[in-house]
Amino acid sequence: MRLLRRNRSSPNVVFVMFFLLLVAIFLGPSTLPRLLATLLPFVDEGVPCDWLREATDRSVHQSLLGRAVSLRDEPPISLDVRVSSVSLADPAQLVVFSVIVINNTIGTVPILVTPDELILDPNQPTSGLGVVSGGAPDVSNVGETVDSYPPGRIRLLGPQQRCVHEVAIPFNQIPGGSALVAENSTVRAFYRNNVRGAVQQTSGVSVYGDQGLWTGVVESSPRAVGTG
């Protein structure tokens, strides 16, 4: 307690706290995480996507702004990707992929997130987040043959917010993993979904007829893979 009182009385501590508050106000939730990640490498570029609020009872609970941006043709989100270094001498190593999802709008956007999983083979009929080698063709929207998604798979990304979906995958389980250790290899992240999702009515009144999901494919720019 003595240490806490001493820190609170320190002008330097008060100045730093005031400065961080000003930064948070003026830079906003989009720029601040990137600045912190640049200054402090151990600070990630957003909260884990798994921690975002689940989309429950979408028949009555949806943001009108979120629906407006999700029902347009243009993607409401953009992506970035990072990947850990890959050692040529260790085929059983864990490769860590970090996909950053950025909401570029002022509406709350529902996205599909499967904890601890990424789509590694874009030919498989699965919707959500995935990664491909930089030399692979553009990802097609081969999504799932479903009418709707369970609430636990839909997360709500707030206005101008970003989240990080990080998954560690054994190198020998990555389809076409040899492309990661090629000279000047790169990876791309993608997100895709092919249905807006029918609502599961849980009350007597249904305001919305779908889950408000954006349909389409969005990809990140290629990012270099380090090799050891």
- C-alpha end-to-end distance: 48 Å
What is the overall number of helices? Answer: 3
The proportion of strand residues reads 25-35%
- The helix/strand class is alpha+beta
Radius of gyration: 20 Å
Order of helices and strands: HHEEHEEEEEEEEE
Low-confidence stretches are 1-9, 36-43
Form type? globular
Number of domains: 2
Tell how many strands the DSSP assignment holds. 11
Topology:
Blueprint: H1 2-9, H2 11-39, E1 47-48, E2 53-54, H3 64-70, E3 77-83, E4 94-103, E5 109-112, E6 128-133, E7 154-157, E8 162-170, E9 186-193, E10 216-219, E11 223-224
Parallel strand pairs: 1-8
Antiparallel strand pairs: 2-7, 3-4, 4-8, 5-7, 6-9, 9-10, 9-11
Features:
single chain, alpha+beta, 4-stranded mixed sheet
Summarize the model shown:
The chain contains 3 helices and 11 strands, in the order H-H-E-E-H-E-E-E-E-E-E-E-E-E.
Notes on the structure:
The chain is α+β, with helices and mostly antiparallel strands and 228 residues long. It folds into 2 domains: 43 residues; 179 residues, no CATH class. Helix content is 19%, strand content 25%. The protein contains 3 helices and 11 strands. The strands form 3 sheets. The protein has a 4-stranded mixed sheet with strand order 1-8-4-3, covered by helices on one side. The longest helix is centred in the N-terminal third of the chain and has 29 residues. It is globular, with a radius of gyration of 20 Å.
